[in-house]
Amino acid sequence: MARRRSSGITSLGFSQDQGCFTCCLTSGLRVYNVDPLVEKAHYSKEELGEVSLCEMVFRTNWLLVVRARRPCCLLLLDDQRRAFSAEVTFKSPIRALRARKDKVAVVLSCSVQVLSLPSLQRVALLRTPPAAPAARPLCALASDPNALQILAAPAHRKGSLQLLDVSRAVKGAQSSSPAVVSCHQSEVACLSVAASGCRLATASRRGTIIRLWDTTTKQMLHELRRGSDYADVYCISFNGDASLVCCVSDKGTLHVWATRGSARHLCCAAAPPHRALCALSDDRTAVVICEDGTFHKFTFSAEGNCHRNDFEYFLQVGDDDEFLH
Predict the structure, then answer these.
(1) Which SUPFAM superfamilies does UniProt cross-reference here (predicted)?
(2) Which residues, at least 6 apart from 6, have a Cβ–Cβ distance to it below 8 Å?
(3) N or C end of the chain: smaller count of CB under 10 Å?
(4) Do 94 and 74 form a contact (C-beta atoms < 8 A)?
(5) How far apart are CA 61 and CA 66, in angstroms?
(6) Is residue 59 packed enough to be buried (19+ CB in 10 Å), middle (13-18) or exposed (0-12)?
């Protein structure tokens, strides 16, 4: 989620374990811990300038950064040294970043390039349909280091996605062709891949249902009803073992489903209608971070009870000099 906003926020992003999030600003960069909500790193505009994108590499000292004045350049920031250790420049602006411990997927206007970490050498290339400048960048990368390394991105056929196992990639090329999955009749608007790479979740521009897919068989497992009115689904997120999935949309609601066996809707809670990201920090807690700088924590039960038990303006949370270890 990246764009300039009145709050000064240009983009937000959760870490791979969903226990932290980054906040890119016209005035620099901040990194927060989710539970408890604590600011863990703070870079001023004088240090970094305006930051448009940032992707954590789990809870390591590496931060992948794109600055507004150099939108085609990816920088690897060592937070321990507070210095850049590597960079790579592309021919078009970087639209999104998705990382795992050993690789980062860089979303460009007509491709997704996969780079090794920390060398930033290209190991795979996935061609994608040309994207309009204002279109939401779509890409997901499985993050579990011991499981399938599935990369999902738009295919050239409307409503379809291509899946590539980047563990099979060799330097500068790919050793196998991506599989194509027909997910929706209309264009895909939002997607997520489980950490293990075994599950894929998708929503179309209609936004009325979330579909769950098995990435190995390419078969649909479940249709999860979000609502009957069309909606812009901002974010879909799995928990660690893909037994739960949640989403937020412009309808101002957070939905959570259980996905094992016979999938069922667990809860629906009121969330701000602002553009937002959601995450499942554990099996009974969902977190929503919003473009207006607000933080919302919800707890829910298997019986369907749900309530918001924390609310903060995270931009007002104080500094903490100790970074994540």
Answers:
(1) WD40 repeat-like (SSF50978)
(2) none
(3) C
(4) yes
(5) 16
(6) middle
Q: What is the 3-state secondary structure (H, E, C) of the chain?
A: CECCCCCCEEEEEECCCCCEEEEEECCEEEEEECCCCEEEEEEEHHHHCCEEEEEECCCCCEEEEEECCEEEEEEEEECCCCEEEEEEECCCCCCEEEECCCEEEEECCCEEEEEECCCCCEEEEEECCCCCCCCCCCCEECCCCCCCCEEEEECCCCCEEEEEEHHHCECCECCCCCEEEECCCCCEEEEEECCCCCEEEEEECCCCEEEEEECCCCCEEEEEECCCCCCCEEEEEECCCCCEEEEEECCCEEEEEECCCCCEEEEEEECCCCCEEEEEEECCEEEEEECCCEEEEEEECCCCCEEEEEEEEHHHCCCCCCCCC
- Is the Cβ–Cβ distance between 107 and 139 less than 8 Å? yes
Decide: 325 and 20 in contact? Cβ < 8 Å. Answer: no
pTM score above 0.85: yes
Return the structure tokens found at 211: 């579909």
How large is the greatest C-alpha to C-alpha distance in the chain, in angstroms?
53
Q: Which two tokens stand for residue 34?
A: 């989710």
